[in-house]
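Hey Z.,

So I finally got round to the zinc ion thing we talked about over coffee. Here's the setup:
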Amino acid sequence: METKDAMETRDAIEILRSLKEKGIRFTPQRQAILEYLLATDTHPTAEEIYRQVKEKFPGVSLGTVYNTLNMLKENNFLLELDCGEMSARFDGNAENHYHAVCRQCGKVVDFHTDLLQLDTLASASTGFSIETHRLVFYGLCGQCRMIH
Ligand code: ZN
Ligand code: MN
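And the result:
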């Protein structure tokens, strides 16, 4: 498991405690799922999260993983990324940021930049009140570029 991002401000227990106040059950499995998501920057699929958490909690089911991911997504503690692959990828960093996807090895890398003026442009052009936008960059990562 990767080391915890120094920029990470909220930990799993803190998030789950705040959700408990909304009536959402705090379980050790949910804690393990969220801890894994907050500690990794690989943008894992639900199956990858399931395999990791199962090592610590052999009784955990894929259903519990999906259920927890949906709950975290609905409460804005998780991003679900559509990277043009079969399975969605999940990001424990729900702050607005962008991603570059390697079309060869499938690696998903964070890209932090402020493009919030895009919302203003889109709003002015369409008359919508813009709530969010998605932007994914596709290409070859540094490692795959060396091979090709
Ligand atoms: Zn690659
Ligand atoms: Mn990310």
